[in-house]
Amino acid sequence: MQNTLKSAARFIGAGLHSGASVTMIVRPAPADFGIWFNRTDVAEGTGMIPARWDCVVQSRLCTLVANDDGVSVSTIEHIMAALAGLGIHNAQIDIDGPEVPILDGSSIPFVAGLLARGVRAQSVPVRAIRVLKPVEVRDGAALARLDPADMLEIDFSIEFSEPAIGHQGLRLNMANGAFVRELSDSRTFCLQADVDRMRAGGLARGGTLDNAVVFDGGRVLTPGGLRHDDEPVRHKMLDAMGDLALAGGPLLARYTGVRAGHALTNRLLRELFATPDAFEVDTCGLMTGGKLPGVGVRPADVPARFCA
Prior knowledge:
Layout: E1 3-5, E2 9-14, E3 21-28, E4 35-39, E5 48-50, E6 56-57, E7 64-66, E8 72-74, H1 77-85, E9 91-95, H2 108-117, E10 119-121, E11 127-131, E12 135-139, E13 142-148, E14 153-159, E15 167-173, H3 178-183, E16 189-191, H4 192-200, E17 213-216, E18 219-220, H5 231-244, E19 251-258, H6 262-273, E20 279-283, H7 286-289
Parallel strand pairs: 4-9, 11-19, 14-19, 16-17
Antiparallel strand pairs: 1-10, 2-3, 3-9, 4-5, 6-7, 7-8, 11-20, 12-13, 13-19, 14-15, 17-18
C-alpha cells in the first residue's frame, strides 16, 4: 500500500548555499498525490513544483527542481532520500524559501522527524518502476547504470586522491529499512580547498563543520570525526537514493554509480524514460511490496542521539 504521514513535520534551518533560514513543513497528502514542493513565499498559484526527474534543471553541487513559472527549490536530495527510505509516497512539502535546510548535512534529522509523526498506510497499491534491461550513461570516468533486480540495490564506488578518503565502495539492498540503518546519518562531505573556492564564489554560505565532513589531506577537520569509516561513499549512496526517488515511484533495479553525481543520475533517469522497452510499471502485490524501502522501519532503527 501507498503511505503518507499521520501528521505534519516541521523543520527549520539554514540553506547550505544561501545561508538563509527557511521553514519547511512536510504534510500528509492523499493517495496518488506523489511528492510536491510548495513555495509559500511566491505569488499564489505559482509555487507548486513536482519532485520529478523531468523537472530537474542544471545546478551546481545539488539537485534543483523548477516549474514552468521559473519557481525552484534546491538541495532537495536529502529530504527526498528520507521520504523514499521511509516508504512515504505522498506528501506536500511547504517551504518558505528556495533551498531545503541542510540541518546536519545528512538525512537523519528528516528521518527522525518524519518517523516521530508516524506513517499512515493508504488503501491504494504502490506502482513501482521495474527496470527490464540495462540502461547506462557515462561522463568520462564517471558511470551511472540501472540493471534489472527484484528490489532496489545501490552499488557505489568513489576515488579521491586525499588519503582520508581514497577508494571506497559499498553495495547494499534497500529493503526492510536498510536506508535508515545504514545510510541516513551519513553527512555531505567536501575538501577544505573546495570550501574556500565555493565561498569565494558566493556559495556554501550556510556550510559549517556542524553540517559537513571537511577533509584536508589526511585529516578530518569536523569535530568528532566520521560516523562511519566509509561515510563519504555512504553519503553518495544517500544522494543517489534521493535522486532516484525523482523517478515518480520506487525503482525495482540495481543502481551502479562510479564517481557519479546528481547530474549523472538525473541523466540516467532521463535515458530510462526515453527507452520505453527498458521499464514497466508494476502494481505491487504483497511479495514485491514487502521488498520496498521503508517496509518494516521502526523508530527504534533511529539511533537514540538522533531521535526527535
